[in-house]
Design a protein that fits this description.
Elements (H helix, E strand, L loop, with lengths): L13 H6 L18 H8 L5 H11 L18 H12 L16 E4 L5 E4 L14 H18 L12 H6 L4 H10 L15 H15 L14
Helix pairs in contact: 5-8, 7-8
Length: 228
């Protein structure tokens, strides 16, 4: 996991420090990813005399509670000066307008093997090209079989060290929860956090692939893709 250590220049500004750390895996300026948006943090801290002290402790020590149950990764290697610059930049974003959700979401209908129809908010296959999966789904397959298979099983078929992710999605795990667990990890169960190594886009691509596998629409093995 990428973290800024004491070897970094003390002269770097807060934005550079934040964007150069693993913070961007879980936060953005205008919208929630795993953790809250920076502008939401800044607005919540406005007028609080102890806001800086609380934020400083959370950055250094990690933890959860203020913004949900997903624990924030601790950053003990950041210096006092680095944390101060990062907080100064985050607090300056209190007037940034929150990102607006898309007005309408396109749904894609697929027929399962039992004859029922399911609708997804992303495409699994390239339109008009039969079983060929989209670039996102194929990239999710590549990422999964590079990093996730050791514990969760090759081609999302289930493993002995960690849960079968297909079953987790069938049981109701949504994209946001999948993203949160992947980024923050579950230390009590031996799962590492991938924040700072995989991006938000990477994890969502893995989710799309596993979703296709959980519906038995994407086959095991290397799925056919539009680049074939």
């Amino acid at each position: 996991m990428q973290q800024l250590g004491k070897q970094n220049s003390e002269g770097e500004n807060g934005e550079t420090l934040v964007k150069g750390s693993d913070c961007s895996s879980c936060h953005t300026v205008e919208r929630q990813v795993v953790g809250p948006a920076y502008n939401a943090v800044a607005k919540s801290c406005a007028g609080q005399t102890d806001a800086v002290e609380k934020m400083d402790a959370r950055i250094q020590e990690g933890g959860s509670g203020n913004w949900g149950d997903v624990a924030m990764t601790p950053h003990p290697d950041l210096t006092d000066a680095q944390r101060k610059e990062m907080m100064k930049w985050i607090l300056s974003l209190k007037d940034t307008v929150a990102a607006q959700p898309p007005a309408e979401t396109t749904l894609y209908a697929y027929t399962l093997k039992d004859g029922t129809t399911i609708k997804l908010d992303f495409p699994l296959f390239v339109e008009g090209k039969g079983p060929k999966v989209t670039k996102d789904v194929f990239r999710g397959y590549e990422l999964y079989d590079s990093y996730c298979f050791r514990c969760h099983g090759q081609d999302a078929t289930g493993g002995q060290l960690a849960p079968d992710l297909r079953h987790s999605l069938v049981a109701g795990m949504k994209q946001q929860e999948f993203l949160s667990v992947a980024m923050a990890g579950r230390k009590e169960k031996g799962m590492p956090g991938w924040a700072g190594f995989l991006s938000e886009k990477d994890v969502i691509q893995v989710y799309k692939y596993v979703k296709g596998r959980s519906l038995d629409l994407v086959p095991s093995g290397r799925p056919p893709s539009e680049q074939d």
